[in-house]
Amino acid sequence: MSAPITVRDISADEHLAWLQTQPSASFLQTPAWGDVKTDWRHESIGWFDGETMVGAALVLHRSLPKVGRSLAYLPEGPCIAWDSPRLVELLRALRDHLKAKGAFALRIGPPVPTHRWQAPTIKAAISDPATTRYDQATPDVVEPVGTSVVETLRRLGFKHLSPEDGFSAGQPEYVFQVPLAGRSEADLLAGMNQLWRRNIKKTQKNGVTVRIGDASDIGTFHRVYLETAERDRFTPRGVEYFERMYRVMSSEDPDRIRVYLAEHEGDVLAATVFIRVGEHAWYSYGASTAAKRELQGSTAIQWQMMRDALAAGATTYDLRGITNTVAEDNPHIGLIRFKVGTGGEAVRLAGEWDLPLNRVLYAAFDLYMKRR
């Protein structure tokens, strides 16, 4: 007979050691990420089958004012075996542990795919006026594990958060990924559309160079990022955030985070933040200048990051979130076309789910976040 699954606090070192035994995990589930998110209290927890660790998670806590009870949030986590026949037991052990610690609600974001749309399917959907969203297009792949996880969460009383819902923390449900497993650089190039291949050749012909920076280049990245924020009308993060992210993630693993800069004759054309945990690599932040856009600095930097991810043994290159739209009149369609040109695929994840542990406090917190 199996021992009962238990959850208990673990040290950051124990957490990191366990993650290093896994093929990958989200960078949002590394101990270092807790040190990046200074506006949340954080802790590491582990699942145990007897004395054997079978899972780990970074838990971020946001407290209700004056009450001392918290929302316990596991962004893109926990890192457990989502195909386990004991999944219900794993989730109930998590619930009980966090409830005993004073959490009024549990929020998780299972990093498991449910549906995939490949590049030809996306292109056809964009050209079809009757199709305006991914979930209106027939997926190329329906993932059985992800589908089962969603059913299990519903059965256990979890509530699915759409991006429009109240105080959703906002990790993307739809992402764009380029599969790398078993592929060479030549395979990657062959999978791209003609425009991407032509632009890669153009960057080489025009003398655009891409280099990996260090901590001293964060300021340069941030200047380009501020220009991008003004142009694209989003609220930028301060430079201190990126300095802290680079410092704490590099301290945890020197290969975890990189800054890339695309340059031409002394001018910075584009700058990005690249993150890798095991076999998963992310294009996390990107920025570009308005100057010399015809030289395709953003294309050059993406191609270099893909090649480096492949060389490091990554099986997935992740361009992070996309909106659930394929409508030609959507303002994001240019970005979608840029990503589709890589030959990758749109992936729907299980999304974020809340389990209220105290319904009165959960409702009060929802109201508080909406009024902020």
Automatic annotation (TrEMBL):
<dbReference type="Pfam" id="PF02388">
    <property type="entry name" value="FemAB"/>
</dbReference>
<dbReference type="InterPro" id="IPR050644">
    <property type="entry name" value="PG_Glycine_Bridge_Synth"/>
</dbReference>
<keyword id="KW-0573">Peptidoglycan synthesis</keyword>
<protein>
    <submittedName>
        <fullName>Aminoacyltransferase</fullName>
    </submittedName>
</protein>
<keyword id="KW-0808">Transferase</keyword>
<keyword id="KW-0961">Cell wall biogenesis/degradation</keyword>
<dbReference type="InterPro" id="IPR016181">
    <property type="entry name" value="Acyl_CoA_acyltransferase"/>
</dbReference>
<keyword id="KW-0012">Acyltransferase</keyword>
<keyword id="KW-0133">Cell shape</keyword>
<dbReference type="InterPro" id="IPR003447">
    <property type="entry name" value="FEMABX"/>
</dbReference>
<comment type="similarity">
    <text>Belongs to the FemABX family.</text>
</comment>
